[in-house]
Q: What sequence folds into this?
């Protein structure tokens, strides 16, 4: 009887945890270009309940997912290495009641076109059986619009990379604004840009950063990685 009651309480607790969690947005369409170094899949997890929820995550990719593509997940505890598809059983995540936190999913196209989908599912157990909620990417489309634009993007680089004090952008005639993010997607710096200008990152800690280059209309031209040493 005690075992039966314990199992029943576990089931009730799991359903309660699932009911109070929500992703925003619930489903995402991702569009990018093969020349993008890295694409951020934005997602926020909210616990609208009255109790803290402990969870583990697992990534599932469909059969069409190109072998050249890579993914990287940053949860509340750690930014995992590329192509790690589930969280460590020794590092559970806890989202407190009433809290909203970012779950970052990164896609690295590695110069490859393709169409696919990916699900990030949260579980209450380390065996990934008791599902809480799933963030779905309804579609992921990575393609070039024209060969001319693709060639321009290939020449659009940040250098020196790695750097210790500054960077600048090559083939930068269309770039008007640059935004620097840390690995979990928080904005760290932003710069107005004119061709040939150098931008200081001397004050930043050593590590990996994401660089987004914007045109005069506020549209993202390209996303790149910058290593600070």
A:
């Amino acid at each position: 009887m005690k075992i039966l009651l314990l199992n029943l309480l576990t089931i009730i607790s799991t359903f309660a945890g699932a009911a109070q969690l929500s992703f925003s947005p619930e489903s995402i369409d991702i569009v990018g270009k093969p020349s993008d170094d890295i694409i951020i899949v934005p997602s926020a997890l909210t616990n609208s309940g009255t109790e803290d929820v402990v969870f583990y995550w697992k990534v599932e990719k469909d059969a069409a997912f190109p072998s050249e593509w890579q993914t990287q997940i940053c949860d509340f505890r750690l930014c995992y290495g590329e192509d790690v598809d589930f969280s460590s059983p020794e590092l559970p995540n806890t989202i407190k009641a009433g809290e909203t936190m970012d779950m970052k999913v990164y896609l690295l196209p590695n110069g490859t076109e393709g169409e696919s989908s990916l699900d990030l599912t949260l579980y209450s157990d380390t065996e990934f059986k008791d599902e809480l909620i799933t963030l779905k990417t309804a579609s992921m489309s990575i393609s070039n619009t024209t060969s001319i634009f693709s060639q321009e993007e290939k020449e659009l680089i940040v250098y020196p990379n790695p750097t210790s004090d500054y960077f600048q952008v090559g083939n930068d005639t269309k770039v008007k604004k640059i935004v620097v993010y840390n690995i979990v997607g928080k904005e760290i710096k932003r710069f107005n840009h004119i061709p040939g200008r150098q931008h200081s990152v001397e004050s930043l800690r050593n590590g990996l950063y994401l660089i987004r280059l914007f045109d005069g209309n506020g549209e993202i031209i390209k996303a790149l990685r910058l290593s600070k040493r």
Summary: Residues 155-228 form a domain with the Immunoglobulin-like fold (CATH 2.60.40). The chain has a mean pLDDT of 83. Residues 2-20 form the longest helix (19 residues).
